[in-house]
């Protein structure tokens, strides 16, 4: 990494492509990546010094393959995301994922009640996402007429 930083600085490159031994592209490093690493050396990193990675999947059918691919790629935390997290489909997806990957950090949501949070925890969640329709592009509040911002969630 130090060699790459020196080359980028010397040649005024802003980006460097990262390839494996077979020259397949596996990533890209930017000058800002180096600057952030210097400014924030204690960022959340795994045992190999890589930034932790999270990903979200839905609870619907067909996401099993996506979960498997994410785990195989080394995802650190998985969000099983739904506009109504206190539903049997979400709970079942969490149970199945927990059974298959007992050590995976799983976040479930969205819920707005203590009963919903409890159900997610009992299904196997490591953490719970609270609030219904909190995002700026989320249409749940508009479509259903219901929304519970995080500050008013009763968990």
Give the CA-based shape: elongated
CATH architecture of the largest domain: Alpha-Beta Barrel
> Considering DSSP H and I runs of 4 or more, what fraction of the residues is helical?
25-40%
- How many domains, in number, for the residues? 2
Number of strands: 6
- Major sheet characteristics: 4 strands, parallel
**CATH class bucket of the largest domain:** Alpha Beta
Organism: Escherichia coli
Family: Belongs to the IMPDH/GMPR family.
Enzyme class: oxidoreductase
Protein name: Inosine 5'-monophosphate dehydrogenase
Tell me what the structure shows:
By secondary structure, the chain is of the alpha/beta class. The protein has two domains: 1-40, no CATH class; 51-155, TIM Barrel (Alpha-Beta Barrel), CATH 3.20.20. The protein has six helices and six strands, in the order αββαβαβαβαβα. The chain has helices at residues 2-11, 31-39, 63-73, 88-100, 114-123, 140-144; strands spanning 15-19, 25-30, 54-57, 77-81, 105-111, 127-130. The strands form two sheets. A four-stranded parallel beta sheet has the order 3-4-5-6, with helices on one face. A two-stranded antiparallel ribbon has the order 1-2. The termini are far apart. The mean pLDDT is 84.
